[in-house]
Design goal:
Layout: H1 2-5, E1 36-38, E2 42-45, H2 48-59, H3 64-78, E3 88-94, E4 100-105, H4 141-152, H5 157-170, E5 172-173, H6 176-184, H7 186-189, H8 194-198, E6 210-211, H9 214-226, H10 229-232, H11 235-247, H12 253-258, E7 262-264, E8 267-271, E9 274-278, H13 285-299, H14 308-328, H15 339-342, H16 345-353, E10 376-382, E11 388-394, E12 404-405, E13 410-411, E14 452-455, E15 461-465, E16 467-468, H17 472-485, H18 491-496, E17 500-501, E18 509-512, H19 518-527, E19 531-534, E20 539-540, E21 542-546, E22 549-553, E23 562-565
Bound molecules: 6-diazenyl-5-OXO-L-norleucine.
């Protein structure tokens, strides 16, 4: 303990005492739960095998970026519903020496994409943005992870990819979470070659059986030997382009050859004396989380957790930040994004001043009326050197577009649905978005992914967080940060606590069923808030510094998640 406490990663000022959380009697998770403790390094993920892959490379001397890449590739094997080689993502890095970085490996629209490609002659949407060959953007995950490794990794790439390669070639045991996930999505998986592996005889492999993925093992081996080139210009590119041509997809070898991940300047902001590092566009995540936190800081001291006053403040801040998100953000290579305004404290003060203490404002009065005009995975890593990485990666839907690349062994994304297919028409997440996020060749579709690293007031690492869950990612991420800073919750309580979500349209607060006491719901309705009760608001995998080490946990909302450490 003493030795660990003197390391960079676990040193820093004493963490303020945590205050036990109180949840409503109707809430499905108890207060007082805690995650996994580790002294030196840790990975929290929706899949524990993938977390263990990251820990394995850290134990060999690898750093947090090596571990993040190892975890990312292992997720592609062990968690095919969201882990991927055929999707994209974002990684926020904070090195112990103070450097921070953000890499954007979001998918890009193929060159043959057009603005109205999903609008049928009758003006309705065709649905081709969510399933089948036309739904995919050009994948970024392999390029992004290898570039992060090139710049920050310590171990050779073959060592980093070894655990994923082993999981693919030796196989993994199908657990009930994987079985249920495959069974639930059998119609999507059934549209292409993935069904031979994942639905032999029409149903998933039996729980307890061993799932070996030789094609994927071959692909990972090619990447270990020849780098991202194998994927973007070599035989994997040939397999993707040939299949796309055969089935009517748009992605060509030219699309793959021109794909580049982008290093971005991370958003650096602060909240009540704590600072944080977040993802700038092409994700809306960091911008919107920052705007929400800035509005709440300007609004005043936090009310007690779970009260009508507190929910009203968080919902009203989120509503305003989402109005900006949905209308102003898009790929910065294509649209002028007013990033410094949206993340400025002055702007947030003007928005906060206009929030009434006891009355909801309709979204239409906030300029959010564009009507005129599930599956992702987040993981958090800390290493024994004090470095930290927050990564979110996605295929969009579970198993993406359902298109599985024959011979190469992975699913393609259906990320094109994150674009504005038609102004004023909701996408699969009910998001009503504007012109800034319209489809254009080579453009990146706006994301909500929000990998975030929070530092304590003296600059020491405090929290690595982020989530899956479409636009609700932004709510989960900002509310976990609020729970830790404003409500002084332990990580277990901060993640288990009921969440709310307001994305401006629909103009209502979405509350997790049982998460608010009946009297609080009544008070919110009396203020004029619409209430939609629903299932979980996103799912997180987070790590927090605690005395003598780290606590890490998956989200109780997701089966099979957790943390591994050493
Ligand atoms: O990038 C985005 O915002 C979405 N494609 C994320 C999708 C997602 O989180 C689905 N997961 N549960």
């Amino acid at each position: 303990m003493m030795a660990a406490a003197s390391r960079q990663g676990t040193s820093g000022p004493a963490i303020p005492t945590r205050i036990p959380a109180v949840f409503p009697a109707s809430w499905r998770f108890p207060a007082g739960s805690h995650g996994t403790f580790a002294q030196h390094g840790m990975v929290a993920s929706d899949n524990v095998l993938a977390a263990q892959a990251g820990v394995e490379v850290m134990k060999q001397g690898g750093n947090a970026v090596d571990a993040a890449v190892a975890t990312g590739f292992a997720l592609a094997v062990a968690y095919p519903e969201a882990g991927n080689l055929g999707g994209g993502g974002y990684m926020v890095i904070r090195m112990a020496d103070g450097r921070s970085a953000a890499i954007d490996y979001r998918e890009a629209a193929p060159l043959a994409a057009t603005r109205d490609m999903y609008v049928a002659p009758d003006g309705k949407l065709t649905g081709e943005s969510v399933i089948g060959p036309k739904a995919s953007g050009v994948p970024g995950s392999v390029a992004g992870m290898l570039e992060a490794h090139r710049k920050f990794g310590k171990l050779p790439i073959a060592k980093v990819l070894a655990p994923a390669l082993r999981l693919a070639s030796d196989g993994l045991v199908v657990d009930s979470a994987m079985y249920r996930s495959l069974r639930g999505e059998n119609s999507r998986i059934g549209i292409s070659a993935g069904k031979d592996l994942f639905l032999p005889d029409g149903s998933p492999p039996a729980i307890g059986s061993r799932l070996v993925q030789p094609q994927l093992a071959h692909t990972i081996k090619l990447i270990a030997d020849s780098g991202a080139r194998a994927f973007y210009r070599g035989s994997i590119a040939d397999s993707i382009a040939a299949q796309m041509k055969r089935i009517g997809g748009l992605i060509t070898k030219a699309d793959l050859a021109r794909y580049q991940p982008e290093w971005r300047t991370p958003i650096r902001s602060s909240f009540r004396g704590y600072s944080f590092i977040a993802m700038p566009p092409s994700s809306s995540g960091g911008t919107t989380v920052t705007e929400i936190l800035n509005i709440l800081e300007a609004y005043g001291s936090p009310a007690q957790f779970g009260t009508a006053a507190e929910v009203h403040a968080v919902a009203s801040a989120s509503q305003r930040a989402f109005v900006d998100r949905n209308s102003k953000l898009g790929d910065p290579a294509f649209v002028k994004v007013p990033l410094s305004t949206l993340t400025s404290k002055t702007y947030a003060r003007s928005l906060a001043r206009a929030i009434s203490r006891d009355r909801a404002d309709p979204t239409s009065s906030l300029g959010g009326s564009l009507r005129e005009g599930s599956q992702t995975t987040h993981y958090s890593v800390v290493d024994q050197f004090g470095n930290a990485v927050a990564t979110t990666t996605t295929l969009n839907d579970l198993y993406g577009s359902g298109i599985y690349i024959s011979g190469a062994g992975f699913f393609m994304n259906d990320e094109m649905d994150d674009f504005t297919s038609k102004v004023g028409v909701p996408n699969m997440f009910g998001l009503i978005q504007g012109e800034a996020n319209a489809i254009a060749p080579g453009k990146r579709m706006l994301s909500a992914m929000s990998p975030t690293i929070v530092l304590d007031p003296s600059g020491g690492l405090l929290l690595v967080t982020g989530a899956r869950g479409g636009p609700r990612i932004i709510s989960a991420t900002s509310q976990i940060i609020l729970n830790v800073i404003d409500h002084r919750m332990s990580l277990g309580d901060a993640v288990s606590a009921p969440r709310i979500h307001h994305q401006s349209l629909p103009d209502s607060i979405r509350v997790e069923r049982g998460g608010l006491a009946p009297g609080v719901l009544e008070a919110l309705r009396a203020m004029g808030h619409g209430i939609i009760e629903g299932g979980g608001v996103a799912s997180s995998a987070s790590i927090m510094r605690v005395r003598g080490g780290y606590e890490g946990m998956g989200d109780p909302r997701t089966a099979g998640g957790g943390a591994a450490g050493f």
